[in-house]
Amino acid sequence: MTDQEIYAGILRKDNAAFTYLYNEYRRMILSMVQKNSGSEDDAMDIFQEGLVAMWTNITQGKFELKENTRLSTYLYSLCRNIWISRLRKVKPGMTIEIKDEHSDLMDVDDQEEQYTLIRTLEKQLLKLNEACQQLLKQFYYEKSSLKDIALSMNITEKTAKNNKYRCMQSLRSYYENRTDDER
């Protein structure tokens, strides 16, 4: 099942979506909890609590599946946060670091914040002149060197470096002075 199919199934209260989630992601959550001082029973409790929280958040409209968001990431971050909360109750005042093999899964809040920031910056980038847009896109999106950019724009490398600085200053200014409609 795709994330879209699972999400739609949850909205329809389809047990097949729940069963799929349970079978597909149980091992991932069990592994995370057990590698971080938890028993198998703890892990099952955390997993079930995370599933219920995800199901509730989706059906109550508190979470919407977006293009760059994966349900596995959302479920993992819910379970991880539940487990951290539980550990904090048992070990108050102690710094808790979770060891996990899924460190590439970003917290959903972080993903949404990053997506919003990128969209806002893209809007501000359009306010720059064509040369600035081209230079910044080549440098930041295409990862071109200043030397390659200078060649493509028929300028010196030093001029490309100075222009990049000026363009970034303009972009920062646009970003910092954006209106409420642009936020």
What percent of residues are in strands? under 5%
- What profile does the largest beta sheet have? none
Taking the alpha carbons of the first and last residues, their distance comes to: 35 Å
Number of strands: 0
CATH homology superfamily name of the largest domain: RNA polymerase sigma factor, region 2, helix turn helix motif
Number of domains: 2
CATH class of the largest domain: Mainly Alpha
- Averaged pLDDT: 83
Q: What fold name stands as the CATH topology of the largest domain? A: Rna Polymerase Sigma Factor, Chain: A
CATH architecture of the largest domain: Orthogonal Bundle
Secondary-structure element pattern, one letter each? HHHHHHHH
Low-confidence stretches: none
Secondary-structure-based class equals mainly alpha
Overall shape? elongated
- Radius of gyration, rounded? 23 Å
Q: Could you estimate the helical fraction of the residues in percent?
A: 55-70%
Number of helices: 8
Main attributes?
single chain, 183 residues, mainly alpha, Rna Polymerase Sigma Factor, Chain: A, Arc Repressor Mutant, subunit A, 2 domains, 8 helices, 0% strand, elongated
Could you walk me through the main structural features you see in this protein, from its secondary elements to its overall organization?
- The chain has 183 residues and is mainly alpha-helical.
- It folds into two domains: 3-105, Rna Polymerase Sigma Factor, Chain: A, CATH 1.10.1740; 112-182, Winged helix-like DNA-binding domain superfamily/Winged helix DNA-binding domain (Arc Repressor Mutant, subunit A, Orthogonal Bundle).
- It has eight helices and no strands.
- The chain has helices at residues 3-11, 15-34, 40-59, 71-90, 108-125, 130-141, 146-153, 157-176.
- α3 crosses α4 (71-90).
- The longest helix is centred in the N-terminal third of the chain and has 20 residues, at 15-34.
- The protein is elongated, with a radius of gyration of 23 Å.
- It starts with a helix and ends in a 7-residue tail after the last helix.
- 16% of the residues are buried.
